[in-house]
Amino acid sequence: MAWHQLSVITDETTAPDISEFFSELGAVSVTYSDADDEPVYEPAIDQTKIWTRTRVTALFELDTDPDIVRNLLFNQFIGQPLQEWVAEVLQDQAWERAWMEHFQAMKFANRLWICPSGQEQHEPGTVCMTLDPGLAFGTGTHPTTALCLEWLAGNDIKDKVLIDYGCGSGILAVAALLLGAKQAHAVDIDPQALTASQYNAEKNQVQQRIDYYLPEQFSAFAADLVLANILAKPLIELAATIGALVRPGGQLVLSGILNEQAESVAAAYREQGFVVAPPVSQEDWCRLDAYKTD
Question: How far is it, in rounded angstroms, from Cα 104 to Cα 119?
Fold first, then answer.
């Protein structure tokens, strides 16, 4: 099935009203994108960032007349900043298959393979996690996830009990179990993330050793290892909560942190009784490794 993809550039004040108007006209989806090159590092958890110049893009079914949508839009928003109207037909395709063409097997610390279905590696001395694109963030291609996978593959986690706080696709929890961890507890605010984690655990036959929770369902306890690959701001805001999940002498791995944010995050966890190692960087991102003092 093909779609009409209709978009217009406006300012941050008008963008939400245009989004709502597109929806009222029958759009099946509406998205925002940066019309210039204005960096966005980290909006608040409950905030959708709208750029100073935002392109609002809507998908309509093919029987929609783009000229009618345009006329209605420009008549509704007379005097408002509307620029660079674009109407095009977006051909349907197997998005998952197209994405898979760019997702190749990856190896971490000479010990862990992350592989799409059909590309599994069975190299002696390594373990292989099968992972396909799905509902939630986390495939190992992004530096924040890759940095965590490198840590897991490069450290002895045999028989450890871990908490994956903000588990996304469950990639870290599942990888840890394949690498010898005893039990994993996956926590995320998004129910789809828990669904994706469960699917990936079953695909890799570790489902008997992992439990899944929304934050309000999770009974906090102190684990041997806590992984938190989220963002700097929630890491700082949740420092006391996340810190309390690590037993004395236990390990903490934090990621989703821009290089320039590393010291602020490290300081928040030092206050919780952690010794924090210097950041490990990849591109613009870094990982912080820490252990909790006795």
Answer: 8
| Beta bridge pairs of residue 207 | none
- pLDDT of 135 reads 45
Which residue type occupies 257? I
Q: Which 3-state string (H, E, C) describes 146-193?
A: HHHHHHHHHCCCCCCEEEEECCCCCHHHHHHHHCCCCEEEEECCCHHH
Whole-angstrom distance, CA of residue 131 vs CA of residue 143: 17
Amino acid identity, position 154: G
| Lowest model confidence (mean pLDDT) among 46-50, 76-80, 108-112, 174-178 | 46-50
Q: Residue 257's pLDDT is what?
A: 94
Q: Which helix (H) or strand (E) holds 31?
A: strand 29-34
The Cα 167–Cα 205 span in angstroms is 18
**Rounded Cα–Cα distance for residues 6 and 18 (Å):** 12
Helix (H, G, I), strand (E, B) or coil at 26: coil
In the 8-state DSSP scheme, what is residue 36?
S
Residue 84 makes CB contacts below 8 A (sequence gap 6+) with 8, 9, 35, 55
Spell out the residues 6+ positions from residue 202 whose beta carbon is closer than 8 angstroms to its own.
none
Range 35-54 average pLDDT: 65
| Cα separation, 257 vs 284, whole angstroms | 9
Cα angle value 213/264/49 (rounded, 5°): 65
Tell me how crowded residue 131 is: count the other CB atoms within 10 A of its CB: 24
53-61 sheet: strands from edge to edge: 29-34, 53-61, 3-11, 83-90
Q: Which of 13, 59, 52, 61 is nearest to 33 (CA)?
A: 52
